[in-house]
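ok, trying the design again with the full structure, not the truncated one.
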């Protein structure tokens, strides 16, 4: 299962971003919220943004594979997704709007491609069968 690779990458990505938040909470001694520390605010939003996009994208990827999409399509979508997520995270941390913007564009592009491919590969004969 090709999508399993990207599910693992997604989990590792989220774990890494979560550990960044934990590290900064310890560093700044903040148990809840962000304590007004910009670096912690950024880490929290970087993790939150990834947590908002990655699960839906991975669900779309798994369904694509279940519906019989070609392996190269799965890899293309998975690579676009994680390239986008990495660029976005880098852009948030470095306050570089270009990286952040391009990261979101790649993320949204990968989602759009997966939506379209899921519609193409959807077993319409089963969906439209009336019982």
């Amino acid at each position: 299962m090709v999508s399993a690779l990207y599910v693992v990458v997604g989990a590792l990505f989220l774990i890494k971003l979560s550990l960044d938040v934990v590290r900064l909470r310890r560093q700044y001694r903040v148990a809840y919220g962000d304590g007004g520390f910009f670096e912690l605010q950024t880490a929290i939003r970087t993790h939150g943004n990834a947590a908002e996009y990655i699960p839906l994208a991975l669900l779309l990827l798994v369904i694509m594979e279940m519906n019989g999409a070609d392996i190269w399509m799965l890899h293309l979508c998975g690579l676009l997704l994680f390239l986008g997520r990495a660029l976005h995270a880098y852009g948030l941390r470095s306050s570089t709007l270009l990286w952040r913007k391009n990261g979101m564009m790649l993320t949204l592009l990968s989602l759009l491609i997966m939506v379209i491919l899921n519609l193409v590969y959807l077993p319409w004969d089963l969906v439209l069968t009336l019982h």
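Keeping the full-length input from now on. The chain has one domain: 2-120.
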